[in-house]
Amino acid sequence: MTDEQITELADSLDSGLRCFVHKETKAIVTTQDAAHGPLSDSDLWDDANEEIENNFDNYVEIEKMDSNESFRLMQNFTETIEDERLRGKLDQALSRPKPFRNFKFEVDNSGPYRQKWFDFKKQQLIEWVKDQLTANDL
């Protein structure tokens, strides 16, 4: 698959979509994740949903990170922070109840580290997608 397709898959997963890759053509089909949110404008997704339903065996689903993996991603990012004060805030955020919300708050208010987080997360998601593609011989 091309770098552009891999990036598209990573971005779609990050947006909360379900992603499928056709085993032969490598075509990407994305759908809303009904299990994790309301289906807004569901008729916009009808063609994609129908394609997957009718040809499910021809596709491989690229799984999103589960909450444990997402948590590890935040921990790994925190370990890269050179600013001791911010690293301490992020460590605290991850040790309190609602770590995802707390981490997001701290990162969103961290100045230039906000973009560093987005860049780090995107690169890790790209690697996540590549690992799944390799595991599925795509």
The counted number of beta strands is 3
Order of helices and strands: HEEHEHHHH
Based on secondary structure, the structural category is mainly alpha
Q: Please give the order of strands in the largest beta sheet.
A: 2-1-3
Number of helices: 6
Distance between the termini: 7 Å
Helix share, percent: 55-70%
Number of self-contained structural domains = 2
Topology overview:
Layout: H1 3-14, E1 17-22, E2 28-32, H2 46-54, E3 59-62, H3 67-80, H4 84-95, H5 99-108, H6 113-135
Antiparallel strand pairs: 1-2, 1-3
Helix pairs in contact: 1-6, 3-4, 4-5
Description:
By secondary structure, the chain is mainly alpha-helical. The chain has two domains: 3-64, no CATH class; 67-125, no CATH class. Helix content is 58%, strand content 11%. It contains six helices and three strands. The protein has helices at 3-14, 46-54, 67-80, 84-95, 99-108, 113-135; strands at residues 17-22, 28-32, 59-62. Strands 2-1-3 form a three-stranded antiparallel beta sheet, sandwiched between helices. Helix 3 (67-80) packs antiparallel against helix 4 (84-95) and helix 4 (84-95) runs antiparallel to helix 5 (99-108). The longest helix is centred in the C-terminal third of the chain and has 23 residues, at 113-135. The chain is elongated and about 50 Å long. The termini are close together. The mean pLDDT is 92.
Quick synopsis:
The protein has helices spanning 3-14, 46-54, 67-80, 84-95, 99-108, 113-135, and strands spanning 17-22, 28-32, 59-62. It is mainly alpha-helical and 138 residues long.
